Structures are given as structure tokens and as C-alpha cells.
Amino acid sequence: MFKRKTRSDCTVGTLEKKNGLPPGTIRNPNGRDTRSDKKVGTIRREYEKRK
Fold first, then answer.
1. CA–CA separation, 26 and 16 (whole Å)
2. 12 backbone φψ class: left, alpha, beta (φ>0; ψ -120 to 50)
3. Which residue, among 16, 8, 3, 18, has the nearest Cα to 43 in the 3D structure?
4. Residue 46: CB partners within 8 Å, gap ≥ 6?
5. What is the average pLDDT across 4-31?
6. Of 1 and 43, the one with more pLDDT
7. Dihedral sign computed on CA atoms, order 47, 5, 32, 11
8. How far from 25 is each of 12, 17, 21, 30, CA to CA, in Å?
């Protein structure tokens, strides 16, 4: 069985809640919590830009 990729328009808060993660699990590169209304697609683009 495979796991599907999370949709880009999903927010961080929804992703944490859907996967049963505690709030604040997803963090920025500097170590601070990511805003819960930030979209997963934005995080992916920022990661690609840093590479």
C-alpha cells in the first residue's frame, strides 16, 4: 500500500490534525513553529528555493 502526497492547498494546522500530530510539529528552518494557516505548497516552494 502507498501513502498519497498531501495536497498543496492543505494548511499546516489541517495537516497536523489529520495526521494526529501535536500542534507545532512542523517548524520553520530557524526552529520556530510554522503558522497554522500556512499552506503546504508554500513550504514546498520555500524548500526547493533553498536547495
1. 8
2. alpha
3. 8
4. none
5. 93
6. 43
7. positive
8. 9, 11, 7, 14
What's the rounded Cα separation, in Å, for the pair 13 and 26?
9
Residue 1 has a pLDDT of: 67
CB 13 within 8 A of CB 43: no
The three grid cell numbers given for residue 5, joined into one nine-digit string? 502526497
What pLDDT shows up at residue 4? Answer: 83
| Cell (9 digits) for 13 | 494546522
Supply 4's cell numbers: 498519497
